[in-house]
Amino acid sequence: MDCESDNSQQKEAEKSSSQSFCCQCPCPCGKPQPTPTSAGDPPILAAQAFKINIFPESKIIAQIGDSISLTCSTTDCESPSFSWRTQTDSLLNGKMRNEGTESTLTMDPVSLGNEHYYLCTVICESQKLEEGIPVEIYSFPKDPEIHLSGSLEVGKPVTVTCLVPAVYPFEKLEIELLKGNRTVKTQNFLEPSEMKSQETKSLEVTFTPVYEDIGKALVCQATVHINEIDSQPQVRGTTKKLQVYVSPKDTVISVNPSTSLQEADSMTMTCTSEGLPAPQIFWSKKLDNGNLQLLSENATLTLIAMRMEDSGIYVCEGVNLVGKDRKEVKLIVQEKMFTVEISPGSQIAAQIGDSVVLTCDVMCCESLSFSWRTQIDSPLNGKVRSKGSKSTLILSPVRFENELCTVTCGHKKLEKVIQVELYSFPRDPEIEMSGLLVSGNLVTVSCKVPVVYPFDRLEIELLKGESIMKNKIFLEDVSKKSLETKRLEMIFIPTTEDTGKVLVCLTKLPIDEMEFEHKQRQSTQVLYVNVAPGDTTLLVSPSSILEEAFPSENVKEGDTVIISCTCGNVPQTLIILKKKAESGYIVPKSTDGAYTLHRAQLEDAGVYECESKNEVGFQLTSITLDVKGRESNKNYFSPELLMLYCASSLIIPAIGMIIYFARKANMKGSYSLVEARKSKV
Q: What dotted CATH number matches 339-423?
């Protein structure tokens, strides 16, 4: 074969077949020459040619970590044999899968070891073909990073670093730094790498921020030019908004009302400082050793109830991210006299037996002590509770004494006296009667005032309606301090006209120099005058003519008789109707004092008594009822009598009801129920 190339494909072809193939080198190729054969042998025919294709058709550019596949396929060959290798006989670093007329080489994930020229070799019977494809690798996994050497402060230089991590191949990297729309610096990395590796490259720029830079954007843009002809460059960028700071300055303190104060005064100090961002304000006090004691993190510092030890130097500091600025002010607090106040007041009125709370309140003194005592140095009858600037004395119950509060503040001492004026007037007066009020009978009325003090001021009035019956003023000496019960008594004769009138007991304790809730109390009682029973009447009414029957009245057997007992118009009177018997009395069942005999019998004859009584007395009256037997020969059931009986059975009840209601309307307590059954007298 006339070819000077040492191409391996050509050599393999020459070994495996008598047919010659064109070399891949640029040298001319001759036509294939037939292989000589022995004389008499038939000529050998050449095998049918097949084709090989590889996909993708052009080179592959893949990023580290991606996944790629190379596919090799044949035509005109039923059972091809595939193999893959790199041009430098390096490791494939991939997985091969053959299926029919195709073979696939997959690299997942792609690494630097996969950057080769890959060859696919196909053998079909006695023929062998190869096809190759280059795979280029790059690494550009992240956006660039912007780093500052410190905070951006107006007038102070700062270094900006634009960093591109894990890039390959870095000789194709370009980094550009922009501020706003203006390029600050551009850098290319053209030196070839001695070995395949991912490296981090950076660009640094130093500049001095100005006020105009506030709010501008700092942009770091990185470009990797993979293949200037076939591929678009890979571009990544990062933007950072410039935050430019101004260190605090021009710190100012204002004091209200003044830097010269007195104990217990209050004051306010306000601090301002300029800077960007706005400085935070810190208030501190300078200690004797020079250290600062933090007091507040607000622009305003308020001090109340100041003491002498609050004097000193106060420091205001304005602080932000890039610096601080301070200002000092000196305060002087002078000593001030303290005051003591007593409450409820220097003189109070208290009812004996009640609880009284006395409070001693101190102002303008922090270090103090309290003590309580009585004016005559008797044992203190109460509980003392002191806390802070207040001390409380609880008197329960209050007694006949005055209390003093003593306060010591430092080397000074003050004393306040509370005068407790005592009284006792706890309840309304009580009205008492010596007995029931009976018309015409003497009765003693008493108006009692319990546990009163001082009773030399006590006044009692007894009134009936608006008329004063009696009054009294107690002018006795009260040198002895004690609680006493006083009363006013009088005798009067009640009449029935007094019923419904109001008896009033009015009491007064007019102590002008004392103020308390009740200086006047009263009680009332409505008078009810009782009347003893009188005018008791016992009536007998035959049902036939409804006439009143008198003692020893004759009543015929079979008549209906009503015995009625009444007692004038005296209210709340108990009326009892009873019949004398050999063994005592029989109390028949009556309704409202009326007892009805239906068909009177001989045994109903006898003496009937009516007894009326109430709380103030009683009265007794009686009547004799005589019941006569019937005439046996008289025809009681004649037609005329029957008609008269029927008529009377309708008329008589009506007349009886009229008489009943008439009597009941005229006499309270009367009893009359009539129900006639026959029209006979």
A: 2.60.40.10
Q: Which residues pair with 72 in a beta bridge?
A: 54, 103
* Residue among 331, 404, 335 at smallest CA distance from 366: 335
CA distances from 146 to 57, 160, 162, 237, 464 (A): 40, 7, 5, 10, 108
136-158 burial code (b ≥16 CB/10 A, e <16): bbbbbeeebebeeeebbbbeeeb
Q: Would you call 232 exposed, middle or buried from its count of C-beta atoms within 10 A (0-12, 13-18, 19+)?
A: exposed
CATH class of 430-526: mainly beta
Read off the pLDDT of residues 198-216 as tens digits, 9 standing for 90 and up.
999 999 999 999 988 888 9
Tokens coding 304:
């109340």
Q: Where are the domains of the chain?
A: 47-138, 145-242, 246-334, 339-423, 430-526, 536-666
Looking at CATH, the fold of the domain delimited by 145-242 is given as Immunoglobulin-like (2.60.40)
* Residue 82 pLDDT grade (very low, low, confident, very high; cuts 50, 70, 90): very high
* CATH 2.60.40.10 correct for 246-334: yes
d(CA 267, CA 255): 7
Task: Express each pLDDT in 20-60 by its tens digit.
Answer: 223 233 333 333 333 333 334 444 333 468 899 999 988 88
Q: Tell me the pLDDT of the chain averaged across its residues.
A: 78
